[in-house]
Amino acid sequence: xxxxxxxxxxxxxxxxxxxxxxxxxxxxxxLAPWQAPLAFADKGxxxxxxxxxxxxxxxxxVAALVVLSPKRAYRWARRSFAVWRGYRWAxxxxxxxxxxxxxxxQSVQS
Length: 110
Known about the structure:
The protein is mostly helical. The protein is built from 5 helices and no strands. The longest helix is centred in the first third of the chain and has 29 residues, at about 5-30. The chain is elongated. The mean pLDDT is about 90.
């Protein structure tokens, strides 16, 4: 390869690296306000995963709630059912909004 062309390639590489660094800094500044909410959501997902691995904790908590306060347990059951229905509706709506070909492409990329 000719030395002039090689120098051009190195110069372009340096420009691209500098541009990428600037873009990373810009994205970091744009995402800074989201750091706390995303950390909170991440902790929530961690707790959910832990409870999914230890369902006996959930069963004990529900049993204690039912024994200690049946009225409160009924209210929480209604709320939980409403949240679950909302979740199922959202998943269904998202699946209908995303074309089947795009879903297949997303699963291949993941």
